[in-house]
Amino acid sequence: MPSLPDTERLLLGPGPSPVSPRVQRALSAPSLSHLDPDMMALLDEMRGRLDRVFRAAPGAFSFAVSGTGSAGLECAVSNLVRPGVHVAAVVAGYFGDRLAQVCERWGARVSRIEVPWGRAADPEQFARALRAEGADLVTLVHAETSTGVLHPVGDLAAVAREHGARIIVDAVTSLGAHPVDAAAWGADAVYSCSQKGLGAPSGLAPVTFSAEALDRGAGSQSFYFDIRLLRAYWTERKYHHTISAPLVYALAEALAAVEEEGLEARWARHRRHHSALASGLGAMGLELLPPEGERLWTLNAVCVPDGIDEAAVRRFLLTQFNIEIGAGLGPLAGRIWRVGLMGHGSSAQSVLVFLSALERALRDQGYPVTPGAGTAAAGDALATVK
Ligand SMILES: Cc1ncc(COP(=O)(O)O)c(C=O)c1O
């Protein structure tokens, strides 16, 4: 029989992120049924915490759908997209494309607004596309995990609102780490996951629907994702499905930790560690794919230098140092490494351990790097960036 892991991997890939001991302990609390009064009290509290982390407007319904980030995506799309609806999808990477594909599966007529992988969407280009073709609904990815790019959702959503289009935002790699503001964006639905910026294991996907979206009759052909049934479970205790108690405990504990730290402090922590990592990589002669100002704090897309075997570096980090990082997806396969600093994993320790291990991996392939240059630069950045 294969054995369970007995060593702790340092999870510095695109997600899942490391789970803190506190959240790990929550997973083993005694089980409760999905309709137990104590469970319902936990879910009530979680709705409030999710309203706050999404910065949802009054009257919104925030909850967590059972499943991973893709369940959040399917829930948002299937409740807002009707057959024949015209969707303008900003596609700047793998996950923008997935969102467009799911809209097509639910019967939408999708126009793709393509953005070069590695660059942020341009609100002007977006405005021109909407002026030319209009749209009933737009789909936006806030943090495109395949490219390491943060997209200007505030500006893009303002353009969408001017055209009267409804808005779905993917905040899978930003919630709990970058500012997310469902109310200011005027988004009809924003979805995320539990296993990245929030720092819980995967399995519950936070989602928020605005009051307007609910009033305008959001509902799904899917039984499992129908917001009317899910809301009746979360607010009126009507059985819909058997939510996983350990996952609820873990997410509840992770959200409590987010509130104790404070959202602003948490965003600053993610920014600081990204910035230290970028300084360290720069000192080692390595580049990030997106230009400065368009980079995620959660996911660093590092360009693989010429002549380096990118898969061998990942293998070296895993086997020699127990560190996981991610590979590139689609057209970026073989061209970038994806290094995540998210949730509990966004720490000075992660940055310095990773840079030392990467130095060993690169020197193993004959790449010229001054010993200690990366960690020295990162250390200096950590001492100065607040
Ligand atoms: C931006 C984005 N959207 C959606 C998803 C899908 O989430 P999951 O793999 O949890 O289903 C991911 C996964 O990494 C993602 O990064």
How would you explain this protein's 3D organization?
- The chain has 386 residues and is of the alpha/beta class.
- The chain folds into two domains: 21-260, 3-Layer(aba) Sandwich (Aspartate Aminotransferase, domain 2); 262-384, Aspartate Aminotransferase, domain 1, CATH 3.90.1150.
- Helices cover 43% and strands 15% of the residues.
- The strands form four sheets. It has a seven-stranded mixed β-sheet, with helices on both faces. Strands 11-14-13 form a three-stranded antiparallel β-sheet, covered by helices on one side. The chain has a two-stranded parallel ribbon with strand order 1-12.
- Helix 2 crosses helix 10, helix 5 runs parallel beside helix 6 and helix 11 packs parallel to helix 13.
- The longest helix is centred in the C-terminal third of the chain and has 21 residues, at 263-283.
- Bound molecules: pyridoxal-5'-phosphate (PLP).
- Pyridoxal-5'-phosphate is lined by residues 14-15, 68-70, 73, 95, 141, 145, 170, 172-173, 193, 202.
Can you tag this structure with a few keywords?
seven-stranded mixed sheet, binds pyridoxal-5'-phosphate, Aspartate Aminotransferase, domain 2, 15% strand, globular, alpha/beta, Aspartate Aminotransferase, domain 1, 386 residues, 14 strands, three-stranded antiparallel sheet
